Amino acid sequence: MDTLSYKTISANAATAEKKWVVVDATDQVLGRLCAKVAKILRGKYKPSYTPHVDCGDNVIIINADKVVLTGNKWDGRVYLRYTGYPGGQREFTPRILMQKSENRHIKPGKHPLFLKVMKGMLPKNRLGAALINNLYVYNGSEHPHAAQQPEVIDINKLK
Description:
The chain is built from 5 helices and 6 strands; from the N terminus they run βαβαββαααββ. The chain has helices at 30-42, 73-76, 94-100, 112-121, 126-131, and strands spanning 20-24, 58-62, 79-82, 89-92, 135-137, 151-152. Strand 3 (79-82) and strand 4 (89-92) form a beta hairpin. Helix 1 (30-42) crosses helix 4.
């Protein structure tokens, strides 16, 4: 048997096959949904997965306003950030972030609650910063990415 015929194929930016997918967030638990979307963004469901390359798909999440949090997490969970100044610690809840998503000043496709949750599930380096740009989240069922011909996937069938 020729052992030289077994070569490990490593994907790079030129050979990565990226596609567009649409995920419906209606009645989905936020953390479980985002964990599966993070795997799609990284490309872990693909056989050509390479850890140091952006080989994942572009993900469009629709109906983000219909996402579910179990228990009292809408008001009980507290996220923190720090401005860098003395006394600059700010705290906010998922309910506040969901209300901010309806603000017109927020860039379309950049949902504050989903970005906060997804950033925690992606690598904390330049690759993670590039991957978060492949995520688009919209409150309604309409999105402006019809030209990319995204395919609708059922997130419940993924592990």
